[in-house]
Automatic annotation (TrEMBL), chains A, B:
EC code(s) of this entry: 2.6.1.9
Family annotation (InterPro entries): Aminotransferase_I/II_large, HisP_aminotrans, HistidinolP_aminotransfase, PyrdxlP-dep_Trfase, PyrdxlP-dep_Trfase_major, PyrdxlP-dep_Trfase_small
Pfam family, one: Aminotran_1_2
Name of the protein in its database record: Histidinol-phosphate aminotransferase
Reaction catalysed by this enzyme: L-histidinol phosphate + 2-oxoglutarate = 3-(imidazol-4-yl)-2-oxopropyl phosphate + L-glutamate
Pathway(s) of this molecule: Amino-acid biosynthesis; L-histidine biosynthesis; L-histidine from 5-phospho-alpha-D-ribose 1-diphosphate: step 7/9
Cited PANTHER family: HISTIDINOL-PHOSPHATE AMINOTRANSFERASE (PTHR43643:SF3), HISTIDINOL-PHOSPHATE AMINOTRANSFERASE 2 (PTHR43643)
Aminotransferase class I/classII large domain segment(s): 25-347
Database matches in Gene3D superfamilies: Aspartate Aminotransferase, domain 1, Type I PLP-dependent aspartate aminotransferase-like (Major domain)
Cofactor dependence: pyridoxal 5'-phosphate
């Protein structure tokens, strides 16, 4: 703290991202990155964009990328907003649509950045406890509130939400924006994108960090009716005109074009996930059903925090959240089959 | 406007960046880009970083780049904050240090994003009129206020501020943060960086967009004492953990290393600027003395707005601001000698 900080800054409680270790090489299953490389066309497009034109500003409106994403989802370009990672898109969304006088609803067990955004925007969150099995109590999101944010599938549990529940929540919240954060949707969930045409209150947020294996280039986007997208652009253009650089833009365009490659990789990840769940069950873990590229697991006798530290000693990083209700769970990213074999070996050694 | 926008968003008045035209090829002297390419090492470093590691998140703290910048300026890494372009750095600075109850002081003729940031942060600006010759009235910045923002050199005038005036303003504002925005400092200005050790209230903001010829990769930074940098990190980490992607980070590191190349390019730009000023004087323009990579010029008989549109017809883009006191001026970026020859040809044709 410093006398130079304003009162707004003094009350902030920043997000803490998963560790990006530099001390040694780990089997890195802690930040839900894709274990497979970006497509060759993406890397080629970026190399191609690394030219003299970097002296020039990028297109502040990302017209080419927006058109590409719009075509992919059968939407208009005016229904697409691009940001510097879905975290920036979410930050702008909180700034644009939610108000201090009306609490914004999100779950007690969810992406922990939501409460940071709420704080950033001086919003009072309305925390909705998940059911005991970590399913979402849709009714609780239908009571009066000033907006809704739900990840589908949820993080860190991995549980997907049926599209009928989303419709139910959208119908009960006609006057507020409902954000469905689909960061992990491509690993088995049901997307809400087809609902956009019928629901002016729906904003779907996506990222290239997981499915498209591009956490390193920071591109996320929001899909929704034009009014919502215009609002996001108004806030963004009051903050930073050029949020997407020429290199990330070029890589993102190629990634959208290369969907067939990414679909195959997602299928591999899903197969590895199911294999891993069976193996974990066999050594005493219970695992929440997952529709994402990570699983949330708890052991019947060994404490999660102990396993977490022991795994680190064994060179395997997973994520542990020391917070009520989930302090006996580990969030484990699905890596390659080889990486998951190393995880299993380490776990067997730890639990023996 | 939409019913879904909150009251904050309804009152915003976004920044309008200079045109990035797509309809035809122009001599582009409208957004103060560097006419020379980034160094070959920068392009090589970016190509090298376009690899499988893009599947992983970047370092959220940009430790390597911060270390490099710190060494370059003989500061500690803890005195460096990195952002997605200096516009993002400035937005975070307004959010961190200024308060609605105390007006932040900036000039009437200055970078027009400042009033957008003030609006974004619900601040009431204290607008200080420049003197008639567009010099800065330092005394007016020493009256009670809640913070100060000054570009040195100023935009769009190009006028530099003597370091003694900056010291004078810093001494009179010990309890508020004084931001010196040095986007254009490397084209002849005197940097305030050596004052950082003595002034805990000084924040110097820089960009790689101009001097380093990297407007296309979006990297800016702030230099100041650790308390100020910690404040910026607190706000940034409440907004977006990973603002700098792997590619921009790699390019920026190479750019800092390649300072000798950029110094040469800056010298060429300065030589072209002085040549252009003489040529403009010869055809009836008066030009404000410039220490930047652009000039601010007014013709003795022809109206700036008329010349602006006629130049566009001739395939030359410059910037015109339709606002009081400067509505008879053109802001002209210094391009290559060949580009400036085309400007002069077009002007001679227009004014004949």
């Amino acid at each position: 703290m410093s006398n130079y900080w304003n009162s707004f800054t003094r009350k902030l409680d920043p997000y803490v991202p998963g560790e990006q270790p530099k001390d040694r090489k780990y089997v890195k299953l802690n930040t839900n990155e894709n274990p497979y490389p970006p497509s060759a066309n993406v890397l080629a497009a970026i190399k191609d964009a690394a030219n003299d034109q970097l002296r020039l500003y990028p297109d502040p409106n990302c017209d080419e990328l927006r058109g590409k994403i719009a075509d992919h989802f059968q939407l208009d370009a005016e229904q697409v907003f691009i940001g510097n990672g879905s975290d920036e898109v979410l930050a702008f969304s909180f700034m644009t649509f939610f108000s201090p006088e009306n609490p914004v609803a999100f779950a007690d067990i969810t992406y922990s950045f939501y409460k940071v955004y709420a704080n950033l925007c001086s919003l009072s969150p309305k925390i909705i406890p998940l059911n005991n099995d970590f399913t979402l109590p849709a009714d609780a999101f239908c009571e009066p509130n000033g907006g809704v944010v739900i990840p589908n599938p949820n993080a860190p549990t991995g549980r997907g939400l049926p599209i009928e529940s989303i419709k139910y929540i959208l119908n009960a919240n006609k006057d507020q924006v409902v954000i469905i954060d689909e960061a992990y949707i491509d690993f088995g969930g049901s997307t809400a994108v087809p609902l956009i045409k019928d629901y002016p209150n729906l904003l779907v947020v996506r990222t290239l960090s997981k499915y498209s294996s591009l956490a390193g280039i920071r591109v996320g986007f929001a899909l929704g009716q034009k009014d919502l997208i215009n609002g996001l652009n108004t806030v963004k253009n009051s903050f930073n005109s050029y949020t997407i650089d020429r290199l990330a833009g070029a890589g993102a365009i190629a990634a959208i074009d290369d969907d067939a490659y990414y679909r195959d990789m997602a299928q591999k990840i899903i197969a590895t996930r199911e294999r891993t769940i069976m193996q974990l069950n066999a050594i005493g873990f219970s695992v929440i059903p997952s529709q994402s590229n990570f699983i949330f697991a708890s052991h019947k006798t060994a404490a999660a925090e102990v396993i977490f530290h022991a795994l680190r000693e064994h060179g395997v990083l997973v994520r542990y959240f020391n917070q009520p209700r989930i302090d006996n769970y580990l969030r484990i990213t699905i890596g390659t089959d080889e990486e998951m074999d190393k995880l299993m070996e380490a776990l067997k050694d730890i639990l023996k």
